[in-house]
Amino acid sequence: MPRRFRRLAAVAAATAALTCAAPAAVAAPQAGSSATTVLSDRPVFKMPFLCGQRWLGSNWRGHSPPHSIDWNHYNASGSPDDYGRRVFASAGGTVLRSYYSQSTGYGNTVVIGHGNGWRTRYAHLKTRAGLERGDKVRRGQKIGRVGKSSALYNLSPHLHYEQIHNGEVVVARVQGVRWYDYLKRYQTSKNRCG
User: Fold this and answer.
1) What CA–CA distance (Å, rounded) separates 87 from 48?
2) What share of the chain is helix, strand, coil (3-state, %, to 5)?
3) Which of 52, 105, 116, 176 has the CA that lies 20 to 30 A from 32?
4) What are the start-end ranges of the E strands in 38-117?
């Protein structure tokens, strides 16, 4: 009986050791891996709207490109009132492009580079704030107004927003909130808060 008990205890100890160690080994990214890099160099993105404004963000199956967010604002009675509202840079950087897209459906678009492969795209703008390639922008600087511009589609007003890393649109993280795919939820802006 003691030998059988020792064998059972040894098997239980080995199982417990594997159960505890295996997830840590699998979950821990290697130094320099893309998971470590993405977490460590992602700018702290704020919502691209005035402090205290509450916006409804949506991304859905079939949204192009995947992971992008469409933002809408509603007044107290529930009617859309986002057309013409100011749009602000969600992080500081350099304007990489400020243009009207006739081929992608983005319409008036601003793309800002934030370093380390990070960019944000703001599309369907009513107006762009006189920005040109190479202009430096700070977080909270006005870059345009919400619109519905598109050379390809008849759209309702909204801001199309993307976070891009090394050329790929990624799942956005806005003010610390991760925007998993197929979400629709409200968020309140902390951009330009004193």
Assistant:
1) 5
2) 20, 35, 45
3) 176
4) 54-58, 69-72, 86-88, 93-101, 107-115
Q: Which residues contact 129 (CB under 8 A, 6 or more apart)?
A: 141, 142, 143, 144
Res. 12: pLDDT tops 90: no
- The whole-number pLDDT of residue 77 equals 96
What would the pLDDT profile of 37-56 be if each residue is shown by its tens digit? 445 699 999 999 999 999 99
| Helix, strand or coil, per DSSP, at residue 43 | coil
Kind plus residue range of the DSSP H or E element containing 151:
none
- Whole-Å CA distances, 186 to 124, 128, 147: 20, 25, 19
- Alpha carbon of 124 to those of 4, 23, 133, 150, 160: distances in Å? 72, 44, 18, 6, 6
Lookup: tokens for 87: 């749009």
DSSP assigned state of 33:
-
The set of residues, in sequence order, having a beta carbon less than 8 Å from that of 188 and lying 6+ positions away, is: 47, 52, 53, 54, 55
Q: Read off φ and ψ for residue 183, nearest 5 degrees.
A: -100, 155
Q: In one letter, which amino acid is 121?
A: R
